[in-house]
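Please fill in the sequence for the structure shown.

STRUCTURE ENCODING:
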């Protein structure tokens, strides 16, 4: 399958995509805001050992790399196919290298304690997804953890935007389809959660926003149930999968 369009887009991903939706000139503030998000949603699933070997597959602008370093993790590396993004991470003193995920994991055989896969899986075709999840599984240590975040196609308000906001998005997920492919690729103790985007520390308005979002989610579950779709229970903007190697 021809994927040459990806090369054209990813070559200038920072200047053409992230420059329109991110505050690159004030990235340190954005790092700090994202740190609060990762701390709230990810910390309890990350290895307790601060020397754990962690891979951020598709590190982008380095938001998770910054968060992990701030949390005290010292052995984390990011990879990305965009040279622009890798160089940007380097300018922020974050460790990242340019590589395709498959190439990197096939060449680097030392196992990881954790692999982070934030907002990447939706960019892949289905065969690619299965192949990469298989590689993740073989690249993790026993009881190693994989964290996968992606837009939630079960949210009727932002699902279409999450799916089509980027030309390189190819696949959308709900909690059931995400769990399905993790089961197929042999992961164990799989948990799917909706991520909490309401960070309370600075803006009290977030408490009110979270309350109304909770009411909306309850209403959506009831409507889904009335239509016979009671397997879908998560309606947050993004879903996070936590899966372990047997």
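FILLED IN BY: designer on duty
SEQUENCE:
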């Amino acid at each position: 399958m021809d994927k040459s369009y990806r090369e054209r887009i990813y070559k200038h991903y920072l200047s053409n995509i992230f420059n329109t939706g991110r505050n690159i000139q004030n990235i340190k503030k954005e790092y700090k805001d994202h740190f609060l998000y990762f701390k709230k949603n990810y910390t309890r699933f990350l290895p307790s050992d601060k020397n754990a070997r962690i891979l951020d597959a598709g590190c982008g602008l380095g938001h998770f790399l910054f968060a992990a370093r701030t949390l005290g993790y010292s052995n984390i590396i990011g990879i990305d196919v965009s040279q622009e993004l890798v160089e940007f991470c380097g300018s922020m003193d974050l460790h990242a290298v340019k590589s395709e995920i498959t190439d990197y994991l096939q060449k680097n055989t030392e196992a990881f304690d954790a692999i982070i896969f934030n907002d990447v899986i939706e960019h892949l075709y289905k065969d690619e997804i299965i192949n990469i999840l298989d590689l993740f599984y073989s690249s993790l240590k026993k009881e190693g953890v994989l964290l996968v975040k992606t837009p939630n196609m079960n949210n009727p308000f932002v699902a279409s935007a999450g799916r089509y906001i980027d030309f390189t998005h190819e696949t959308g997920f709900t909690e059931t389809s995400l769990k399905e492919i993790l089961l197929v690729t042999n992961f164990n103790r799989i948990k799917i959660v909706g991520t909490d985007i309401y960070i309370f520390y600075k803006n009290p308005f977030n408490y009110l926003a979270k309350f109304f979002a909770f009411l909306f989610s309850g209403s959506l579950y009831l409507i889904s149930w009335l239509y016979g779709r009671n397997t879908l229970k998560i309606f947050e903007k993004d879903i996070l999968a936590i899966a372990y190697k047997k």
